[in-house]
Amino acid sequence: MLEAFFAPRSVAVIGASATPGKMGYILVDNIIRGGYQGKLYPINPKGGEILGRPAYPSILDVPDEVDLAVIVIPAAAIPEVVEECGRKGVKALLIISAGFRETGPEGARREREVVARARKYGMRILGPNVLGLIDTISSLNATFATTMARPGEIAFLSQSGALGSAILDWSQEEAIGFSHFVSLGNRADVNEVDLLEAWADDPHSRVILAYLEGIADGEAFMRVARQVTRKKPIIAIKSGTTAAGTRAISSHTGSLAGSERAYEAAFNQTGIIRAESVQDLFDFAEIFAYQPMLRGNRIAIVTNAGGPGILATDMCERAGLTLAQFSKETVEAMAPHLPPTANLYNPVDVIGDAQSDRYRVALEAVLRDPGVDGVVVLLTPQAMTDVEAIARTVVEMARAYDKPVVTSFIGGGVVEPAVRLLQENHIPTYPFPERAVLAMGAMERYRRWLERPPQRLVHFPVRKEQVREVFDKARREGRLNLGEVEARQVAEAYGLRLPKAQLARSPEEAVRLAAEIGYPVVMKIASPDILHKSDIGAVKVGLSNSTDVRDAYELIEYRARRHHPDADIWGVLVQQMISGGREVIIGMSRDPQFGPMLMFGLGGIYVEVLKDVVFRIAPIDRNEAREMVESIRSFPLLKGVRGQPPADVDAIVETILRVSQLVTDFPEIVEMDINPLIVHEVGQGAIVLDARLILRP
User: pTM to 2 decimals?
Assistant: First the structure.
């Protein structure tokens, strides 16, 4: 529990200073000016008085209990001070100071020592290397930022202190308020998962915002985020989405940034709304913090200008929204009160010279319509426009109905008083229509998440012992790359459908096996050291007689030995040839933060050239597997086009689920490819033609 950080009865500032401009002075001053009502104890070896408060030479000299110690002294002195805090019975430590993991090996060693000492006494640590924290409920400003946060219902966590400081300053101008504002720094102890858990049931926070550079424990993050987003929205921006950004993060905090695709999948699977920019982050936050939840995606647009209305209409489709179809009663309610040139259908155009009376008529009519779930109000100022009166009307109408309302009063100085009025009354307002619609779209994304059933994993009956025997044998032989023969054994143990196949060790045996399997057959080299068989011509297809089989065996073996003279060649695999169907690929790679990351796409150029693939973090359930299949751009090809019958999507889904179970059961699998999986018509299933696995060293 983190109450000692957010509702401390007493705070000590270790490193407090009487010199203006010093960090220790700023922290004490901010706590006092923020209005904190608990006990405050400046700690300075010289004692005396700091900003009117008696200072103590040591935390051990404080006569009362201390809940929270804010530490702002040189890093080298902190381990001993942490020990003193433990002996004093301090509950929580906020370590502002830098000089730890982010500086290199010596700093990392010091950080580990600090954590070990704190854990010995059961103390929690926020930091080190942080801006600090603000809690507007207890009026605590334990930061060195230039301003205190406005009170509000947004909880914000940031892995960048500097960005947090800038956002605090900006939020004052935008009238955005916070319940909690936390800089995480190095996350030596308290991390993003701890804060999500702490804020899940916090009555003061309606929405959680997160600026993330990396995640300490991907599995825990996903588990907790799934729980939290069922209660309130989480909006996150993830930096380090490029190779350069990833390197910058590593040098910034010493964190692993993780795979961009893994984060995209994790956010999708946990209901986190992803923001592409800091602007998006707060655009989306405002609607969640101040407006009721959407009940559907049907939106009405009310405007006094055609152009902005068209821009908003275009953006609706991109945002997952639809234009509401007004009832006859709604149109009839507007008609007598709007000019003949007005458009009474969606988007409603009340014409450029409209005053508040026309906006009132239109807003009341569309908000009352049961076929409208939310409203976007647009305004461009004309010479006769009373922008403040219209803003007051918007506020009044929004309060009268339990539907979300967002606005875009487009302009500069002329609309500024109206914009300020809307902000002060918690009506989200944006400078351009597209941003207003995208904010409404973020709420629609969250609404769809809430309608999605909770994850229910499927567990197939499998033969784990068979897989364990295959892996143990490979390790005993010093191999981590498992070729097709062993991958077939693993796939078979997990219920994947495979073509008939046998391993031949001579041309004569190949001829006999081909006759048993039935012509035509496919033949390919069997070697754990040769993973890309086609690249060296070690695969032959469509072999229809014994002569072809005998010749193919000799040619395949020759090419394999020529290209890989040191390879361990087990023989040649003789396999039933599968005709028809469509090729898809299923893969897995293990992400350092999130674990097994599944991939699905169509085979051939769709995956190699067009990169039309989708990723999810295992384990996944049936709904998530189906969503994977339906999310690729080329999914219509699986549904059937130009007379082609639809493919057996259910069989693809089951194959993905079985792979998900396999890679979850065996964390030593670091890579897996099924390429191709041949998918037949509906009801005829899917069959694995080739597979490979790589084990962890």
Answer: 0.91
If one compares 244 and 231, the residue with the highest pLDDT of the two is: 231
Per DSSP, 238 falls in state E
Indicate the CATH number of 145-290 among 3.90.1150.10, 3.40.50.261, 3.10.270.10, 3.30.420.240. Answer: 3.40.50.261
Average pLDDT on 677-683 reads 96
- Cα separation, 203 vs 307, whole angstroms: 41
CA distances from 480 to 45, 472, 486, 526, 528 (A): 59, 10, 11, 15, 9
**In the CATH scheme, what is the code of domain 293-451?**
3.40.50.261
Of the two residues 604 and 362, the one the predictor is more confident about is: 362
Q: Does domain 464-576 have CATH number 3.30.1490.20?
A: yes
**DSSP designation for 129:** S
pLDDT of residue 252: 35
pLDDT(531) > 70: yes
Domains 1-134 and 582-695 share a fold: no
pLDDT at 588 over 90: yes
The residue ranges of DSSP E strands in 467-570, in sequence order, are: 481-482, 501-504, 521-526, 539-543
Domain ranges of the chain: 1-134, 145-290, 293-451, 464-576, 582-695
In contact, 319 and 444? CB cutoff 8 Å: yes
User: Beta-carbon neighbour count of residue 63 at 10 Å?
Assistant: 6
88 dihedral zone (left: phi>0; alpha: psi -120 to 50; beta): alpha
Cα-Cα-Cα-Cα dihedral of 116, 117, 122, 128, to 10°? -80
Q: Do 214 and 258 touch, CB atoms closer than 8 A?
A: yes
- Phi/psi at 147 (5° precision): -145, 155
Closest-CA residue to 543 (of 572, 511, 571, 569): 511
